[in-house]
């Protein structure tokens, strides 16, 4: 078992343990909440960033722009910076709200039978979630021209099994990323 396989197994074991600790309800709140927060941040970042750039930041940020940067941001650094600030603030506030909502559900794990079922379902959900995340990371990074990583990926039986035995995801990603024009 090479180092990449050890990292994959470690991530999966940590996910199973974490899923057992927080349970299904909290993991579902965390997952749905994070998706909602990132969607809201994406929707509101641009309009609020434009407003912030026009009314607060203005031309102040153009002095720290590094020389030799790409021309597509020429004249738009203030807006780019403000949009990043708005996105970060919305994400931070949204995740704080999601975390407080999630923490209010701790009592479920203390209910005798329901708590056990909740914890076991949490193991499944977090295990599946991290498996999909690891698959995506492996799928995306397999094309990187980094020799030591490519060798570790090729020599890892577990990584190769994940890439080969997750047919639906790999076919869909291949169709979407490579065959769409």
Written overview of the protein:
The protein is mainly α. It has one domain. It is 78% helix and 0% strand. The two termini are 39 Å apart. About 3% of the residues have low confidence.
Short précis:
The protein is mostly helical and 181 residues long. It has six helices and no strands. The radius of gyration is 22 Å and the shape is flat.
List its traits.
mainly alpha, flat, 6 helices, 181 residues
Please render the helix and strand layout as text:
Elements (H helix, E strand, L loop, with lengths): L2 H55 L19 H27 L8 H30 L5 H9 L1 H8 L2 H12 L3
Helix pairs in contact: 1-2, 1-3
| Mean model confidence by pLDDT | 84
Which ranges are low-confidence, i.e. pLDDT below 50, for 5 or more consecutive residues?
Answer: 69-73
**In this structure, how is the largest beta sheet organized?**
none
Helix-strand topology string: HHHHHH
Query: How many H/I helices?
Result: 6
First-last Cα distance: 39 Å
Rg for CA atoms: 22 Å
Helix/sheet category = mainly alpha
Q: In the residues, how many domains can be counted?
A: 1
User: How many runs of DSSP E, i.e. beta strands?
Assistant: 0
- Please tell me what the overall shape is: flat
Taken as a percent bin, the fraction of beta residues is under 5%
